Amino acid sequence: MRKGFLAGIVLVLLVSGIFLLGNFIISRSTESPTTPLINKSLALASPVYKISIIDNSTGGDITNNTLLMDNINKTPLISEIIQASGNGTPMIRLGNGSHPRVMIVAGVHGAELPPQIAASNLINHLNGKKINGTIYIIPFAIPRDTATNTRIHNNTDPNRVANIPGIAANTISQTAKSEKVTLLIDCHSTKPHDIPGKNCIIYDPKNPKSFKLAFYINNNTKSPMIKVGNHSGVLSTECNRNNITSVICEVLSPHSKIQPGSDKLTYQYMIAFLNYAGVYSYDN
User: Can you tell me the distance from the alpha carbon of 160 to that of 151, in angstroms, rounded to the nearest whole number?
Assistant: First the structure.
């Protein structure tokens, strides 16, 4: 009788131990930073951010762009994004998914380096900060082109085909639409004596809200405002047509180079944009 009683206690303790161990393993697994998306794209997550791949056709090893790498603060978070870029276009979501939802894009032209540096710096700055809504940042829109330092993708200008399904810029606009983004800036650099060939904010005259956004950034950075050209397939134009108020922010810098101060001006554009949207104040 006594032996049976003791055996019962041992069995209960053994089962309890297995249950507790099981719970410990399950709890640890839910904290793993890697979780698969439905479309089998890589997703990395923490309580304050989520990294996903929105286009699997654009992957490239951007560490091959040594000038870019030399000017990026490769924190653990940025290193995660760089690694993810090998699988396609990475997008990081900062905030809890609430509204307002805004998006910042850089690297549609891979050889335009200042915006990609500024986007990386902004991600580092925002990590862990209080965000009143949700911020989506695409720091390297076409990693393959960033890796090879080119502005041309598949023999075409990627910012002239955003209206064509399956194209990287179109995927970005469709992602913004599906995520219910209401404001977007697409950041570029322009070489001297080119078009536009100067620091500027480019707005869509067909959308009064685009003008209002451009005016706010202009007022905070003193960069002049100009109207968008009559080009089909421009990412910002495509977004404005989809009720996502958008502007292009340009800084003067030669392609494949970094004009001193150009990345800092792009960063100022981005901060002004976030202030306008009300999702983040630089004073936080």
Answer: 12
> Which phi and psi (to 5°) does residue 146 adopt?
-65, -40
| pLDDT, tens digit (0-9, with 9 covering 90-100), for 201-244 | 999 999 999 999 999 999 999 999 999 988 889 999 999 999 99
pLDDT at 142: 98
User: Which two structure tokens, joined as six digits, stand for 69?
Assistant: 């790498």
Contact predicate 179/240, CB 8 Å: no
pLDDT (tens digit, 9 = 90+) per residue, 133-186?
999 999 999 999 999 999 999 999 999 999 999 999 999 999 999 999 999 999
DSSP state of 34: B
Which band of pLDDT confidence, cut at 50, 70 and 90, is reported for residue 68?
very high
**From CA 223, how far away is CA 227, in angstroms rounded?**
13
Spatial distance between the Cα atoms of 108 and 137, rounded to a whole number of angstroms: 13
Contact call for residues 149 and 111 (beta carbons, < 8 A): yes
* Strand, helix or coil for residue 17: helix
Distance CA 52, CA 91 (A): 5
pTM: 0.85
Per-residue HEC secondary structure of 97-159 comes to: CCCCEEEEEECCCCCCHHHHHHHHHHHHHHCCCCCCCEEEEECCCCHHHHHHCCCCECCECHH
How far apart are the C-alpha atoms of 284 and 133, rounded to whole Å?
Answer: 14
Contact (Cβ atoms closer than 8 angstroms) between residue 120 and residue 92: no
H or E element at residue 53: strand 49-55
Burial of 102 (0-12, 13-18, 19+ CB in 10 A): buried
Half-sphere exposure of 23 (CA within 13 A, CB side): 5
